[in-house]
From TrEMBL:
UniProt name for this protein: Legume lectin domain-containing protein
Highest rank taxon of the organism: Eukaryota
Family membership noted in the UniProt record: Belongs to the leguminous lectin family.
Signal sequence range: 1-23
Domain Legume lectin: 30-200
Chain segments annotated as transmembrane: none
Phylogenetic placement of the source organism: Eukaryota, Viridiplantae, Streptophyta, Embryophyta, Tracheophyta
């Protein structure tokens, strides 16, 4: 999936706020952020820490990108060159605030990558992770979970409000309309990603 050392980060695009809790854990390391003021986190592009401990990835301007990375690489393989890869789980609270009602671009992605340098990546539908040259290239070694609020036919997006699991590019390996499972009713309900409300993403792999 990726090299011995991987950078784990909470990137991108559009308007992203991560309030109180963001955490990541694998057998070989874990971290939590309870707010982002006075924390050691690597930011680039439009990303900034706002008063009130919030991390804002982009600021509503068109065609910009921003990244926030955990500052140190994490180990995913049990031994150098080993084939056994650790499981991991990640959880973060986010909000996507459209600049105009019902018009959001383009979404955010949780990314595990062998580098923190995404200077060549494009904003907008590339989510600040890929560009038109490297999209889909297995040598990217990039795993991502996209929270995508625009349907891009070139990436075979299923709709304009979905969660996708991506390997090396923007065409999802698996995707599903955004939703949540309600423990009390046992039902899955739809969820609008770009509602502006705080939401929690919880994943385990
Ligand atoms: C932040 O974390 C990095 C990676 O672990 C480390 O090299 C650096 O010294 C830390 N910076 C501060 C200010 O603690
Ligand atoms: C891991 O693989 C690289 C590239 O094939 C090789 O240079 C290195 O010696 C290997 N390391 C170990 C510990 O086997
Ligand atoms: C939930 O979303 C799916 C897929 O977009 C749609 O087919 C379904 O009608 C929606 N359900 C409700 C209750 O809105």
């Amino acid at each position: 999936m990726c090299g011995v050392n991987c950078w784990c980060f909470l990137p991108f695009l559009l308007f992203l706020i991560i309030p109180n809790l963001s955490s990541f854990a694998s057998g070989y390391g874990q971290f939590s952020y309870y707010g982002f003021d006075n924390t050691n986190i690597s930011l680039d592009g439009a990303a900034e820490i706002l008063p009130g401990r919030l991390l804002q990835l982009t600021n509503g301007e068109a065609n910009i990108k921003g990244h926030a990375f955990y500052p140190a690489p994490l180990h995913f393989r049990k031994s150098p060159n080993g084939t056994v890869v650790e499981y991991f789980s990640a959880s973060f609270v986010f909000g996507i605030i459209p600049t105009q009602p019902a018009l959001s671009s383009e979404g955010i992605a949780f990314v595990i990558a062998p580098t923190k340098d995404f200077s060549d990546a494009l904003p907008a539908q590339y989510l600040g992770v890929f560009n038109n040259q490297n999209n889909g290239n297995p040598s990217n070694h990039i795993f991502s979970v996209e929270l995508d609020t625009v349907q891009n036919p070139e990436f075979q997006d299923i709709d304009a409000n979905h969660v996708g699991i991506n390997l090396h590019g923007l065409r999802s390996w698996q995707s599903s309309p955004a939703g949540f499972y309600d423990d009390s009713t046992g039902q899955t309900s739809n969820l609008s990603l770009a509602s502006g409300n705080a939401m929690q993403d919880l994943g385990r792999l």
